[in-house]
Amino acid sequence: MGRVRIEATGLVNYQSRGRLAVIGDHRAMEIAPSLGDRLHPMVILTAGAEEPGVPLLPLGGRSIEIDGYLGDFKIHLGEAGQANYELLAVDLVLDLSTEPLLDRAMTPPGYFHCAGDDAELDQVIGALGEMKGQFEKPRYFDYDPQICAHGRSGKTACSRCLDVCPAEAITSLTETIEVNAYLCQGGGACATVCPSGAIRYVYPSVKDTLERLRKLLTVYRDAGGMDPLLLITGESDQPFTEPATGNHLVMQVEELASVGLEVWLSALAYGARAVWLVDRQEMSAGVSDALQQQLTTAEEILTAMGYPAGVIRLTQADQVEDLSLMPELETAGFSGLGDKRQTAFLAIDHLYSQATQAKPVASLSQGAPFGSVTVSSHACTLCLSCVGVCPGKALQSGSGEQPQLRFVEANCLQCGLCTSTCPEDAIQITPRLLFDAESRKLPHTLHEEQPFHCVSCGKPFATRSVIEKMRSRLSDHYMFQNERAIRRLSLCDECRVVDIAQDPDAMDGQIRQ
């Protein structure tokens, strides 16, 4: 099979001058001198007597914290502001503590933890000896804050990428996120769980992955292959012996969690009879939970179409069995040129077009990135604050003078920003997938009212419910205790300014304030 060209990405550069901190007890004192010919070691002695030979700092009962990455580690000894506080800058860290000081599923480059036997320590020391000089790795992600559902208007909603990142490379900026490219190790789970596609895996991109997948299945079929079963596995996992069964097609990806629902469903649309995610190393709890959420959503979608349960599943290398297979389907021809949601809908629409026992709607579990919105007509005042915060543009205002709140279900991320922002608690969201593509894409009206016209100039400027709410809430306010002031609430902005300027009582009140 010919190779699929992978689109280039940026590079992240590291520089290490070989400054090494060896953290531990007497073992650190024994090991550090042997590294002096290649690196510049110093010891942070956590316990035991001080011995000459290499630069040494006794911990002396102080706390110790590490942050950073290859070439730029910061080690904090004690509490900042205290007399005994010290801040050390090093390029590399060898942690010989019983429990790692950096407790992450994916540690930064340049940090090595070893509490094992001599053989493991020899491997670590050998790796450390090569960690001096210039290094680079791909920039694995791209981020578009414009469509990010993390937050709007001071409200925080979606935090899926932060919760799942095994490298702790993502931080919240309240309304957007920030990804530390030096800490990011390409786990990819952040892109998998992102409902909008704001954070994208770019090395390889979904487009390149789908092109590779489509070519794999096409070449197999053109060679006379039947019933292709796709096994997806991570390149960084333990060595994998391909199954002897001829219809098992193995596709390696950078990390198993870097591909999600849109890729799995596309594989079925391209003709795979099943998709198995072969886990050959223990992934972190957060990544595993995120992958299970995606698997649950995929299963709910497929079973609502009438397809067998279990055709997409997470399994171990020794548990690959033909338990549940898709029926023979016409092969889809779409590419992955669109964004994440467009790709998912292309796959879903193709599978739905081939289904013979599909329901019109799939009920989905909480956490699914598709769904509907309902609005209480009694509570909604059409203030449209929800429209302003909706990252997917699922909620929209009406056109013309008619006050309306409209909804496009295909755009709904189920992020919850609308529910947390609505001042009247008038909005509810429900995870589901509407299979009819036309209905899913068309805007429909959730709530509308007749416009309220200015009692002076006749210009429409609000809805009756908004004016009534204002009158109710300001009824006890000292500035609205006469008929003229109350009438002013029924004026548009321009007429209200004119009326205030002509009202001596109003002007007097403004001066007193």
TrEMBL record:
Keyword tags? 4Fe-4S, Iron, Iron-sulfur, Metal-binding
Q: Which PROSITE patterns match?
A: 4FE4S_FER_1, 4FE4S_FER_2
Q: Identify the residues that the record assigns to the 4Fe-4S ferredoxin-type domain, covering every copy.
A: 175-204, 371-400, 403-432
What Pfam families does this protein's entry cite? Fer4_9, LdpA_Fe-S-bd
Q: Which PANTHER family match?
A: ADENYLYLSULFATE REDUCTASE, BETA SUBUNIT, BLR5484 PROTEIN
Full protein name: 4Fe-4S ferredoxin-type domain-containing protein
- The lineage's top-level taxon is Bacteria
Q: Name one GO molecular function term.
A: metal ion binding
